[in-house]
Amino acid sequence: MARQQRLTSMSVDALLKLREDVGAVIARKANALKNELKAIGADYAEVGRIAVYGRKSLAGRKVAIKYRDKHGNTWAGRGAQPRWMTEAIEAGAKREDFLVDKTMAVTSRRKAVRKVKRRLKK
Q1: Where would I find the beta strands (DSSP E) of 1-122?
Q2: Alpha-carbon separation of residue 5 from 12, 20, 23 (angstroms)
Q3: Where are the domains of the chain?
Q4: Predicted TM-score (pTM) of this structure
Q5: pLDDT tens column, 38-67
Q6: Cβ atoms of 89 and 74 closer than 8 Å
């Protein structure tokens, strides 16, 4: 392997050539991965779409309340744990003590898994 040079000391032409070389290597690796996916029967277009666009963000969507205390404080289970829950846990409570519906947590998780599986089959 060639000895590494500092990028700041390289000329513009050398940097452009390096960028082209990196692009060529990435293209070769991508083609090799596509061929592997074809060999195992996977649809690489779908896999590539998921890899490029990812999953949709859940930010901004309303979700059902998952935790509630006796004072009426609520939390959906997203983001940082609220102070009221942190204080209660430090006082000896468990997170499960605040679940609104203990069976709901298991049911909603199952529904989410089914939904993801259906989406991946398409």
Answers
A1: 67-68, 74-75
A2: 13, 17, 19
A3: 11-53, 67-121
A4: 0.38
A5: 777 666 566 666 555 555 666 667 788 899
A6: no
